[in-house]
Predict the 3D structure of the following.
Amino acid sequence: MGTKEKEWVRDADAHPWLFKEARAKRGYVRGEDWAECLVHALAGLIGVPSACVCPAIRDGRRGVLSRSVLSGDERLEHGNELLTAANPKYDKTNARNLGYTVSAVNTALAPVEAPPCMPLCMTGFETWSGYLMLDAWVSGCDRHHENWAAIRTVHTMRLAPSFDHGNALGFQVPERQLNSLASSDNIERWSKKGVNRYFRGKPGPVTLAAEALNLCAPRAAKYWLGRLEDVSEDHVQEMLQAPPDRILSEPRRNFIEKLLRTNRRRILDAIGPCAGRARPS
Ligand SMILES: Nc1ncnc2c1ncn2[C@@H]1O[C@H](COP(=O)(O)OP(=O)(O)OP(=O)(O)O)[C@@H](O)[C@H]1O
Ligand SMILES: [Mg+2]
């Protein structure tokens, strides 16, 4: 499943990890590997459960290892299968899908519980709304219907941790363009151009997050917005210092730092004042 070169390997405890190669264009390795690792760390700052990833090199190829979120007899049931179970007319083979809307996901996630690490009253959909808020924060536009899932056990279904975060943080912006994007205005313009082409109407990630959080109970929306508001810029800075300069250059660190600050403000401006109010009874 998916578009990148990948293979499953096992650690010393025989637990599976998925190696995903970072794609290269004309010999230049684009930064899906550092982007995926940084987003995993950023997800931790706002309490979004995400598959554990670490940078890896396999047969000389750069990539990431993503620790399987499954154990024992568990299996993943992807978004497209859940959407089809809720609406048999949903075309699960078509990723760019007119039936793929936030409210369809709300219905599809009705039988799906939140992961056990979430606050007690949080539902599966409310947790998923946090995944959309993460996307909006990191300019992630890849939340298609196979990039989220539920974990099915014999008796239960719970939302799987978020996964596949490589397409984020402007990993595709060439190094030479970073300086021209350095001003806050240019970064905001760049951020607003991002759309999620899989959802009906190709909305931007901030719009999607706002729509989802407005369908949540006010306490859940407030929880997510509070987590984002509480993020310490020092912690973000520390995370950006972790990759070596040859992987993450100084101009790119500056770009990402400003992008995260801009997106955080955009989310809080767009959602803050009215979050949770439009929830149906
Ligand atoms: N940590 C994980 N635990 C269990 N299954 C995983 C994990 N990471 C990925 N998978 C499975 O592997 C599939 C492919 O992985 P992933 O979505 O990360 O990359 P990709 O599909 O190649 O990227 P894209 O969606 O951009 O094409 C996922 O849809 C999911 O079924
Ligand atoms: Mg994927």
Observations:
- The chain has two domains: 6-67, 75-274.
